[in-house]
Amino acid sequence: MQKQAQTQTEMRLPTVFFLGVNGIIGSGIFLLPGHLYQSMGVGSILVMLAVAVSILTIVLCYANMASKITGNGAAWLYTYNAFGRFAGFEVGIFTWLLGIVTLAAEISAFLTMLTPSFPALKQQGMYLTVALGLLFVLIAINFFGPRLTTLADNLSAGAKVAALALFIGIGVFFVHGANFSPLFPASNHLANNFSASYNQVFYMFSGFAFLPITAARMKNPAKNVPIALISVLVTCSLLYMAAQAVAIGVLGSHLAGQTVPIATAFKQLFGQWGYDVMLVGMAASILGVAVSVSYSTPVVASSLASEHNLLPQLLGKTNRFGAPTVALIFTGILCALLLMSGDYFFLISCMVFTSFLQYVPTVLASIKFRKDTRLPKGFDLPGGLTIPILGLLTSAYLLTNFTWLIVGVGILIFILAAIWYRYDDLDRQKHQRKRDVADKDHWV
Fold it and tell me: Are 11 and 217 in contact (CB under 8 A)?
């Protein structure tokens, strides 16, 4: 079997750091603080800390695998090498679905953000009309290739960091200490509220999955990967907790249930123009992510089909602009179904669930390859099996927070994917085509 190739491009720590921060911070911090406060009060800050600590165990498992297997693919690639073609195929399907759910969530987040200014969006018919219209525009744009992706990424990164920095930097001077008491709201359902809040905050960190791939391209990954990952997680955690604390300090009990809490807090400080400025920054951030994901998600499916032979070759077809047309159409149809089936909070749960289905095999792969001499030593997890076991426990806790509907849909997708896998295998045998991924991705 072929061993890992040496990394060709080395990235500096600052580059990885800023890419990581941009990848994690999304719409959640702009829309969820009010709901978190309503459930857990001031204790919502502690929920953020708890998630940051627990998610580190999974991130370190990703770092361990990324320092050993540096090919593009992350979870599905680790799963393929550890557990075979079928397992890699299933995780590949859910990797594609994660992008689809993310796109639906960002569109929903954008419309949720606009609801206070345009109350007509509260009507289901109007909401779906605008959501599907925006989806159509995003898909149509991508038929002409990746022209907007770089611009959207840069715009999104600048907008989200600038909006948060402005809010925290100015808002901290208007915090009222009395707003931080009591620590938790008077409720008989704190345990259930914690579980719901934990999932919502976990969603806010869900962009971490690409970080180890980027970090693994650094010089001396065994030393620098954990530094990059921990610094990014600490920075994002501090930004999240600072934004939540400032929002609580400015709005107090008025924060509970706010649809656009950050903008509302800024409005209290500076009036309508403050609200409008923050809303523009939020819109640029969310739309930028939507444009980027609308491009990258079909590319994932196309790559799995044409480069790695894990999906039917039909999904790898491209037009004269290089756009994966079939994958774009399927992505658009599935995203439309998601937009019609639930709201922003439903889509958050779907995102965390599809992420969960990638975390578990990655953690298990890190256990399987822990002492495998066929792979480079890479970044060793300290404490032996302690971190992977904690990662599995974190994943198990996530599983307990999902509704039976989401779990049932996940099982149905798994079964349908297995049928698809079998049908595609028969077709490949008929036309004498192999399913094995490219040699560069098959390390053991």
Answer: yes
Examine residue 289 and state whether it is found in any structural domain, yes or no. Answer: yes
Residue 126 maps to which CATH number? 1.20.1740.10
Q: Kindly tell me the sign of the dihedral angle through the C-alpha atoms of 252, 257, 262, 263.
A: negative
Give residue 26's identity as a one-letter amino acid code. G
**Number of domain units in the chain:** 1
Burial of 219 (0-12, 13-18, 19+ CB in 10 A): exposed
> Does the residue 154 lie in any domain?
yes
Tokens for 78, please give them: 């680790």
Sequence-separated contacts (24+) of 224-230 with Cβ below 8 Å: 224/13, 225/63, 225/66, 225/67, 225/379, 226/60, 226/63, 226/379, 227/13, 228/13, 228/16, 228/17, 228/20, 229/20, 229/59, 229/60, 229/63, 230/56
Residue 125 lies in a domain: yes
> What backbone phi and psi angles, to 5 degrees, belong to 11?
-110, 145
Most confident of 46-50, 83-87, 232-236: 46-50
Quickly list H helices, 121-218. 124-142, 149-171, 190-204, 211-215
Whether 422 is covered by a domain: the verdict is yes
Model pTM greater than 0.85?
A: yes
Residue pointed to by tokens 């219209």: 133
> Rounded to the nearest 5°, which phi and psi values hold at 26?
-135, -150
Residue 73 pLDDT class (50, 70, 90 cuts): low
Task: Take residue 174 and report the two structure tokens written for it.
Answer: 């208007």
The residue range of the domain holding 44 is: 13-441
pLDDT digits (tens, 9 = 90+) for 10-35: 667 777 777 778 778 888 999 999 99
Q: State both tokens at 371.
A: 């002492």
For residues 104 and 343, is the Cβ–Cβ distance under 8 A? no
Task: Give the Å distances, CA to CA, from 23 to 19, 32, 33, 228.
Answer: 6, 18, 19, 13
**Please, are residues 59 and 23 in contact by the beta-carbon 8 Å criterion?**
no
CA atoms within 13 A on the CB side of 229: 32
Buried b (16+ CB within 10 A) or exposed e, 310-348: bbbeebbebeeeebbbbbbebbbebbbebbeebebbbbb
